[in-house]
Amino acid sequence: MRAAIVEEFHGDLALEEVADPTCPDDGVVLEVAACGVCRSDYHGWTGGHPKVTRGSIMGHEYCGTVVETGPQSKHKVGDRLIAPFILGCGSCPSCQTGASNTCANQIVPGFGAQGAYAEYVAVPFGHNLVHLPDSLSPALAAGLGCRVTTAWHALTDRAQVRAGEWVAVHGTGGIGLSALLLAKMLGAQVVVVDIVDEKLEHAKAHGADATVNAAKVNAAEAIRDITGGGAQVSVEALGIAATTNASVECLATLGRHVHVGMPAGDGMMEVNMRAIYAKQLAFYGTRGMPSWKYPSLLGMIERGDVDISPMLAREVALSDASAELRAMGGPTAPGTAVITDFRN
Q1: 106 and 173 share a domain?
Q2: pLDDT tens, 90-103?
Q3: How many domains are contained in the chain?
Q4: In this predicted model, what pLDDT tens digit does every residue of 95-152 receive, in sequence order?
Q5: Is the dihedral of CA 302, 174, 253, 223 positive or negative?
Q6: 117, 162: one domain
Q7: What digits encode the pLDDT tens for the residues 220-246?
Q8: What does the alpha-carbon distance between residue 45 and residue 47 come to, in Å, rounded to a whole number?
Q9: Which of 79, 140, 147, 272 has its C-alpha lying 20 to 30 A from 259's C-alpha?
């Protein structure tokens, strides 16, 4: 199969013919129809994630068609499936209590296991896989594996957003844009923060009640002014100290900060604990979404309760992945890229 391989950090991915993956006993091999290019991949490509090494095949936002099944798999050849990026084992205490996104035995393709920047990907723990509705295109579905599902879990499980609340979203990449669209569906008022005017205009066109350019004003102060005292919920979607502190500082008393952005490197940063203490804030970490929540989210998308099409900016070839990753080193345009051509 053709795959894009990390050869040197910060360097072009090497396009090579490699052996097809071996089918796991409890899973499947998918012919990849689409795979998102995610900022988490950028962290791995720059050497900022310990499980991405030279020789890795990245790609964790994928969907595709089953071409081979293991003897313990419940799926069949020809099934169109999508998977959460965190594959829970199904038997540990976390999985048994419905929190498979915290599984101690988890497997994450692209981070320690070979991912979907390739024509085929092996998916173990196949019970996590969910059937993809015919109405949802692979390119649009690919972003569900990480960005949309992570944002949905952050808003509904961690923050428990309620209609009428103010939600601040710091960063309008894939996670941030998903959080905007989903928070609006939940009936919240949303203020979006970025440093790129084009992305702020894009967010406003897709429902943002207010926008803040953090390169021009103090974001936390601006949000407190816009919301009349502070947001009830703030979503940090970038993973750096500046946005983390702006998120904490923009909240009203008893507000909820939800940290979604993956911190790079050792993950250490200075956080304004005085703001957390004085305003009695809740500080939540979140990562991924349990697979059992997929059907309800897919159902809402199928019914048209939420339109996630603004997520998808462009479909690219496998050979374009390096350029997409490199662009994440600076300000990026609205929307996300999805690989749909795996031979070029």
Answers
A1: no
A2: 999 999 999 999 99
A3: 2
A4: 999 999 999 999 999 999 999 999 999 999 999 999 999 999 999 999 787 999 999 9
A5: negative
A6: no
A7: 999 999 999 999 999 999 999 999 999
A8: 6
A9: 140
Q: Quick check: helix, strand or coil at residue 199?
A: helix
Q: Are residues 332 and 244 in the same domain?
A: no
Q: Which two tokens stand for residue 70?
A: 């293991």
Q: How many helices (H) and strands (E) does the chain have?
A: 11, 15
Q: 3-class DSSP state for residue 263?
A: coil
The letter for the amino acid at 281 is L
155 & 238 share domain:
yes
Query: Is the pTM value of this prediction over 0.85?
Result: yes
Give Dmax over CA atoms of the chain in angstroms. Answer: 59
The one-letter amino acid at 7: E
In degrees, to the nearest 5, what angle opens at C-alpha 323 toward C-alphas 341 and 318? Answer: 20
Distance, in Å, from the CA atom of 185 to the CA atom of 172, rounded to the nearest integer, reads: 17
Would you say how long the chain is, in residues?
344
Dihedral sign for Cα 317, 318, 323, 328, please.
positive
Helix H or strand E segment including 335 = none
| Segment holding 192, helix H or strand E | strand 189-194
Look up the CATH number of the domain holding residue 92.
Answer: 3.90.180.10
Take residue 254 and report the two structure tokens written for it. 């008893």
Place of tokens 């390096």: 322
Distance from C-alpha of 318 to C-alpha of 144, rounded to nearest angstrom: 19
| Host domain of residue 35 | 2-146+289-341
Asked if residue 21 lies in contact with residue 70, where contact means CB atoms within 8 angstroms, the answer is no
